[in-house]
Amino acid sequence: MTFIQTILNILLLPGLAFTLIASIWLAGVDRVLVARMQRRVGPSLLQPLYDVLKCLGKETIIPRKANEKVFLLAPVVGLASVLVTAMFLPVGGVSALKVNSDMVVILYLLTLASVTLIVGASASGSPFAGVGLSREMVAMISYELPLVLVMLTVGRVCGKGLATFSLSTVTAYQAANGPLLLNPVLWPAAIAMLFVIPCEVGQHPFDIDEAETEICEGVLAEYSGRPLAQFKMMHNVKMYVMSGLFCAMFLNISTGFILADILIYCVACTLVTFVSMSVPHAVTARFRVEQVFKFYWTVVTGCAALSLILVWIGL
User: Fold this and answer.
1) pTM, whole model, 2 decimals?
2) Which position among 34, 247, 292, 294 has the lowest Cβ density within 10 Å, counted as fewest Cβ atoms?
3) In terms of C-beta density within 10 A (0-12 exposed, 13-18 middle, 19 or more buried), how is residue 38 classed?
């Protein structure tokens, strides 16, 4: 029975089926909200799904100078890595996969997804993709440090003196003591995490690796058809993963009823998406490369480090 339950968790809830539905939902809500804030009619709620299906029906064109195997394999690995990442997120107190130090595993899998963009772009042989992959590297260097500091801060609080990197321990701590977002000492870390989310996802105004008006989609310049659909779906799943990770670390609310907890989790993910991605997208122009690096290594890292120091000295 345990084996069957594990398979159902991986395939249905909170696994593959739930992840895909939640990803399309959040990506659609983001586009609709941005359109409304900019006084545009905007697309339908299911437009991200339509985009993926349309790409799946298009021809896959491989550039003449591309390394074909690497070019086609990169989006597959990228999509698989974010889907596996989603399996570690607790939904209604249940995770499809559980390992010790799963926060570290999540960090590595998210990094792998970004690396696949770089590898795929380099395999395409496009000069536009070459510029895009260099920008993606800058973005990775920018947000990785504050993300690690936020995880250290949360782990220190929930580990009761010893830093823990287990999401199940973090959620259990919040079930007993309330959401970490209610702790003023952790507000700077929460703010830092909200800034990390759009850059990790590659969302405007931190989409420096694509920048359509500058480098013609950058890392995705030569992608079409099925591989492009896979990268687009990877982007959508990343939106859900990062929003869900924030909720798991700061906004885990347990009522004791699974359906109620799932509903609260979905609402919380939607609010996080709105605050961290939709609002900046609607009101901010795209950052330049040097602005992204400077902003994350000063303001965002400073916020995360402040909470870590306060937690480490026992406040």
Assistant:
1) 0.91
2) 294
3) exposed
